[in-house]
Amino acid sequence: MRVLIADDHDLLRDTLIAFLGAEEGIELGSAATFDEAVRRIEEDAPYDLVLLDYKMPGMDGLDGLRRALTLQGGQRVALISGQATREIAEEALSVGAAGFVPKTLPAKSLVNAVRFMAMGEQYAPIDFMTAPEKAETHPLVDKLTPRELQVLEGLSEGKSNKEIARDLDLTEPTIKLHMKTLYRKLEVNNRTQAAIIAREEKLF
């Protein structure tokens, strides 16, 4: 079985080669960019499976996958990624990828996945493909700490600093410090403007 591993991270590529190379009957090639992978596919003896990193130089996401699938009369090509979403994995499989392999996959599972895909099957880990998608958070929420959000919520309810301090079991000077940070992050000058933004953005 011949496998080409194309990934721009030297450590990860070497680790994959070490894991797979320890298995009997697997010959390995490697590449650090998409263009280098294309050259290896066109010039080397045929590979049973090509593993392409979704984010490596020249890959251009799924466009690189589509191109690789057409080389040498058709390749078995799988994506490996540490960042791709389930949506990207599903699209990759739909355009003909041999599989999708998260970089978090345990070594033993990776070896099994490679053998599975090289034999002509399509692979994607069940837990990754069925895990609930993380809900998107509001950009403003990402800017603020949990405590700042609590202060902003109290402020948007029209509460005074004293009331917010009592609700959160904090001192008034602490609340004033949080207010100051809030104004800077929200780019406003006073509590009324901050409350308006909170309501307009439907934060609460």
UniProtKB/TrEMBL annotation:
Domain Response regulatory: 2-118
GO biological-process terms attached to the record: phosphorelay signal transduction system; regulation of DNA-templated transcription
Modified residues (4-aspartylphosphate): D53
Gene Ontology molecular function: DNA binding
Residue stretches making up the HTH luxR-type domain: 137-202
Keyword list, A-Z: DNA-binding, Phosphoprotein
Domain of life: Bacteria
InterPro entries (UniProt xref): CheY-like_superfamily, EvgA-like, NreC/VraR/RcsB-like_REC, Sig_transdc_resp-reg_C-effctor, Sig_transdc_resp-reg_receiver, Tscrpt_reg_LuxR_C
Gene3D superfamilies in the cross-refs: 3.40.50.2300
Matches recorded under PANTHER family: HTH-TYPE TRANSCRIPTIONAL REGULATOR YHJB-RELATED (PTHR45566:SF1)
Protein name stated in the entry: Response regulator transcription factor
Natural source organism: Ponticoccus litoralis
